[in-house]
Amino acid sequence: MRGVKIVGTGSALPSRVMTNDDMAKIVDTSDEWISTRTGIRSRCYCDTRAGESHRSLVRDAAARSLDAAGIAPEQVGVCLVATFTADTCTPSAACLLQADLGMPEDTLCLDLNAACAGFVYGLHVAECLLPGATRPYALVVGADTLSRVMDFEDRTTCVLFGDGAGAAVLECREGYPELHAVWGSRGDDSSLVAPGVGCDEPSYLHMDGRAVFRFATEVMPRCTTEVLTAAQVSADEVDRFVYHQANKRIVDFAVKKLGLDPVKCEGNIDHTGNTSAGSVPILLDELVRAGKITSGNRVLMAGFGAGLTWAGVLAEFA
Ligand code: ACO
């Protein structure tokens, strides 16, 4: 049976760093409130004058992941971009990436919207698509530019989010393990809504923070347990837990409830904020580059977000 392994990762954060003190010049907030309630100290926004955009972040993260994998764009059979804030609805961000990197015409290119859970969904979707693809490598990117859909007069949301992209290259091969993916969605829950084409209300991202907090603390531990059960491994056999970075308190809650070793659950929200679909792959890449995830490691990734959606996988590094 064919399965997948991660053979390379990459990420890209934009250059405009906004500290909590910078946010306090825009809305009635403080470094103390933001850092104690969320763990965030700064976030990054695209600087359009420097040519930064959703497209450029996707391109840079994807190119770095291919470089790390030692894979040429011509070898990619599946190209997925998880996002809900692409520059254009069509061409999709995946098609723009195909053009930017010169991937062949028969590359399966598409965008996927599962909000902050999008990258983890993307890994599972790529796993399903690869056996029927033209070539055995998938490029999975998670990217969002939330600074575009934020209301900078709403202190309850604008301090939380940042822009960024991360990517992973998957290789499909006989004898490689399954991802043991679990997923779910709750389409009848509108506690997190962002505008789309033809949508007058809301004109910005709107969130009931407390409701999403309750949802997150329910699904993160549950997702973790379900993946471990599906994979038939114990938490001790997992090298790293890479959780969606929405709020440090949500991760701390899950870690405590599950009795996990906090060292294995390190986050990066302090300098990224919540980058939505970019969150999990950016953290993954930072851990790889810091030598904290290495060849043969097993990494459990879990995300949750608007939709509402959630997903988890256990991936092995080649
Ligand atoms: N600065 C100062 N005060 C603030 C701020 C701010 N930025 N924001 C809210 N407050 C105030 C509120 O007005 C409230 O004041 P009040 O008591 O006088 O009414 C007080 O702080 C407490 O507000 P709460 O909402 O109860 O604060 P809480 O501790 O719940 O933290 C937060 C809010 C950080 C949003 C939290 O609920 C949370 O993290 N929720 C989950 C969000 C999340 O995970 N989103 C991810 C979605 S992913 C996606 O798909 C995009």
Explain what this protein looks like in three dimensions.
By secondary structure, the chain is an alpha/beta fold. The chain has 10 helices and 13 strands. It has a single domain (1-318), classed as Peroxisomal Thiolase, Chain A, domain 1 (3-Layer(aba) Sandwich), CATH 3.40.47. It has helices spanning 20-24, 31-38, 54-69, 93-101, 118-129, 155-158, 209-231, 248-258, 269-272, 279-289; strands at residues 2-12, 16-19, 42-45, 76-82, 108-112, 137-145, 163-174, 182-185, 192-193, 206-207, 240-243, 298-305, 309-316. It is globular, with a radius of gyration of 18 Å. The two termini are 17 Å apart. The protein binds acetyl coenzyme *A (ACO). Residues 29, 33-34, 37-38, 115-116, 155-156, 159, 192, 209-210, 212-213, 216, 246-247, 250, 274, 276, 305-306 line the site of acetyl coenzyme *A.
Topology diagram in text:
Layout: E1 2-12, E2 16-19, H1 20-24, H2 31-38, E3 42-45, H3 54-69, E4 76-82, H4 93-101, E5 108-112, H5 118-129, E6 137-145, H6 155-158, E7 163-174, E8 182-185, E9 192-193, E10 206-207, H7 209-231, E11 240-243, H8 248-258, H9 269-272, H10 279-289, E12 298-305, E13 309-316
Parallel strand pairs: 4-5, 4-6, 11-12
Antiparallel strand pairs: 1-7, 2-3, 6-7, 8-13, 9-10, 12-13
Helix pairs in contact: 3-4, 7-8
The chain binds acetyl coenzyme *A.
In short:
The protein has 318 residues and is of the alpha/beta class. The protein has helices at residues 20-24, 31-38, 54-69, 93-101, 118-129, 155-158, 209-231, 248-258, 269-272, 279-289, and strands at residues 2-12, 16-19, 42-45, 76-82, 108-112, 137-145, 163-174, 182-185, 192-193, 206-207, 240-243, 298-305, 309-316.
